[in-house]
Design brief:
The protein is of the alpha/beta class. The protein has 16 helices and 13 strands. Keywords: Isomerase.
Amino acid sequence: MPAPIKVLSIFGTRPEAIKMAPVVKALERYPEQIISKVAVTAQHREMLDQVLKLFQITPDHDLNIMAPEQTLYDVTSKALLGLKPVLEAERPDVVLVHGDTTTTFVASLAAYYQQIAVGHVEAGLRTHNKYSPFPEEMNRKLTGAIATLHFAPTSTSQQNLRQEGVSEDNIYITGNTVIDALLATVRPDYEFIDPALNKIDFKNREILLVTTHRRENLGEPMRQVYRALYTVLESRPQAEIIFPVHKNPAVRRVVSEVLGEHPRVHLVEPMDYEPFVNLMARATLVLTDSGGMQEEAPSLGKPVLVLRDTTERPEAVVAGTVKLVGTDAETIIRETLTLLEDRSAYDAMANAVNPYGDGKASERTVQAILHHFGRSEAKPEEFNPVK
């Protein structure tokens, strides 16, 4: 029997951990064929640890690089230098990275410097604007230029990679692993630790779940968003907002100024993954500038209004599960009220087919690794959202 394939999964933020956790668990199901190791940079610390605990993952290496007021320069240099001895010690056959964070790009670069193959989970997402989202778009493209294996969540992502010259043989359409994590975490009987959330009448009230954090939206764009939400509340007395507020002081200051005094606005601390997705499952609709929520919410039948002008997830726009509304107040007010007032418009978005996954992406990713390293003859069956 050939030696097991050594796979080192590297991630550093909560979103990466959520989407890589089901991959790590899938790798662990093949102990005779795969040696699975995990390294975290802890680009995020507390939020990362919450996910590791939920999915019962103990890293083999923890760089613990997070520092107060860290910059992209800090994260990049600390992660690159910190991963050098990890890679030298482990000498994996392949390094797995996810998505678009600074950890993702730096881990790919560190592996490249030691001529170690890179597998990119959630590969091929593009807005074709290198400053939107910033720095994620270039992190994706640079990682894609280094990677050998490309685990594309959709056929659109596959086509983006083809146009950049990636060989068809190295692209695997898997679906998105975030759906695997989501389906394993949402429960109808879930009870929130926060008593204020348990008191909310989710069945009879219109609950708007809101998140904002993008750098390009800081300042006046966010102020426009919050003013629009205030107007929506004044128009819909049965509406309430639940807003897990990002820890960035620039976000907190503006949201407190505009929405902080409204009696039907619940400003809460950033939530662990488990309560957050269970909250999303009970909300009426979602307004966000997050990327991952554009994939998660449609799986739960929740319309998403995206507070951005561009998206690296155009499949959802085409499918009708999300709509780009940007940060213009009038547009946000109009589109939000349409969904709250027009049941047919709401149902059209809520019942559209989610193009992102079926809960089997992690298994396809593992099968793709086995195929690439000659442990199986055929490529795994591609994810097809219409099946």
